[in-house]
Design brief:
Elements (H helix, E strand, L loop, with lengths): L2 E2 L10 E7 L3 E6 L2 E7 L8 H8 L7 E3 L10 H15 L1 E6 L3 E6 L4 E5 L14 E6 L7 E6 L3 E6 L4 E5 L14 E6 L7 E6 L3 E6 L4 E5 L14 E6 L7 E6 L3 E6 L4 E7 L10 E9 L7 E6 L3 E6 L4 E5 L2 E6 L7 E6 L3 E6 L4 E5 L14 E6 L9 E4 L4 E5 L2 E3 L1
Parallel strand pairs: 2-5
Antiparallel strand pairs: 1-2, 2-3, 3-4, 6-7, 7-8, 8-9, 10-11, 11-12, 12-13, 14-15, 15-16, 16-17, 18-19, 19-20, 20-21, 22-23, 23-24, 24-25, 26-27, 27-28, 28-29, 30-31, 31-32
Length: 407
């Protein structure tokens, strides 16, 4: 009678306890693996205490259990539906932040957004701010990744297509106009072949499955990489990179890529030295190597006047904000696995699930319980569990933890 056999993501952090009863045998599972089998016959009804007793020997700190009661054993289709339901309810795959809004990608491929919505960046058909996570219209499933700009949002679908919504005053939605959109709008020129997407202040770049880069939107400082300062209202191939790119990072007015050789190249605005070339200038049109980072990099991020790289050895180097060449960040713990950057703060995630941040803290975005500026990596306090991913906006930071997100 009661049947649950889903296994959902992040099982290295928490565990799913479930059970299947076929009318004569009760099998209990931990992360989809059978841990006990008991033979008996009953017609029920079963109390919650009885059900809990079957699991009591297998609970550990951090376990998450959900019991769903069905009238009969589940078919394969029912099991798939149940797994998708639990994924969507408990597992968040990505979290990204814009200036005043945040979006999460659920384990079932849906997108939920909350926060400021003056430009329609929440994708719910309105311009009303939301203090709670809400579904993006038409994107409850089928999304592979998301990217946020200052006031706009984009999603890459499972088929490799792109949909964007929100502010479009500079053509950053890539739909061929400058009309803002409160609902997701498909890019007719990007219906397939995209693997990731990132948003700058008023522009957007996409990474193709072939390792190429396409950008569109504002180009005042040459951040689109096309050798001009002319805006683009539809996606345009960055000529330097028809292939050979593994990741992209968009700052406010600059762009960086992680190449297939694990090096970093940047272009665009450079007044603060954020291109890492050892010099400062108004802008640089052509992508060029960041000094000392032609190999050995595993991740990149970019913000307002600064960019950073995660090294294969776990260290972090940043440049800009007065340093035109990469310098180490002090206080970073060993085992860094991911880096995220907003216009002002930067955060890293460690293999143990810890989060450290540094930079501006005027709104508490460092998460250390203060509003004191932090030049060195500082541990985030108060997370309810180990983090699995991070996202950083202009004035806030977020982490994915067991069963949801904390910001």
């Amino acid at each position: 009678m009661p049947v649950v056999t889903p296994t959902i993501g992040n099982t290295n952090v928490y565990h799913i306890l479930s059970a299947r009863y076929d009318g004569s045998t009760m099998t209990t599972y931990r992360d989809g693996n059978a841990v006990s089998t008991n033979s008996f016959v009953t017609t029920g009804p079963w109390t919650l205490n009885q059900i809990g007793a079957w699991f009591s020997s297998y609970f550990m700190v951090g376990d998450l259990a959900e019991i769903i009661v069905y009238p009969a054993a589940l078919s394969d289709a029912d099991l798939s539906t149940t797994t998708a339901y639990l994924n969507g309810k408990y597992f968040i795959a990505q979290i990204k932040a814009g200036n005043y809004h945040t979006c999460a990608l659920t384990g079932s491929g849906g997108v939920k957004c909350w926060g400021g919505n003056a430009e329609g960046q929440l994708g719910n058909g309105s311009n009303t701010d939301s203090w709670e996570a809400g579904d993006v219209n038409g994107l409850k499933s089928g999304v592979a990744s998301i990217g946020l700009g200052a006031y706009h949002t984009c999603a890459v679908t499972n088929s490799g297509g792109v949909q964007c919504w929100g502010d479009n005053g500079n053509g950053q939605l890539g739909i061929g106009s400058q009309l803002s959109q409160t609902n997701p709008t498909r890019l007719s020129t990007l219906t397939s072949g995209v693997s990731a997407i990132a948003g700058g202040e008023f522009f957007t770049c996409a990474l193709t499955m072939a390792g190429g880069v396409k950008c569109w939107g504002d180009n005042t400082f040459g951040q689109l990489g096309d050798g001009t300062t002319s805006p683009r209202y539809t996606p345009y191939d960055v000529p330097t990179f028809p292939s050979g790119v593994k990741a992209i990072a968009t700052g406010y007015n600059s762009t960086c890529v992680l190449t297939s050789s694990s090096g970093v190249k940047c272009w665009g605005y450079n007044v603060n030295g954020e291109l890492g070339r050892g010099t400062k200038s108004t802008q640089e049109f052509a992508p060029a190597d960041v000094k000392g980072l032609t190999s050995g990099v595993t991740g990149i991020s970019a913000g307002l006047g600064q960019a950073c790289a995660l090294l294969s050895g776990g260290g972090v180097l940043c440049w800009g904000k007065g340093n035109p060449t990469p310098v180490p960040v002090s206080g970073v713990n060993p085992g860094v696995t991911a880096i995220a950057q907003g216009p002002f703060p930067t955060c890293v995630l460690t293999s143990s699930g810890g989060v450290q941040c540094w930079g501006d803290n005027s709104h508490g975005e460092i998460g250390d319980g203060s509003t004191t500026y932090r030049p060195n990596a500082t541990g985030v306090v108060g997370l309810s569990a180990a983090a699995t991913a991070i996202g950083v906006g202009a004035y806030h930071s977020c982490a994915i933890v067991i069963g949801g997100a904390q910001c």
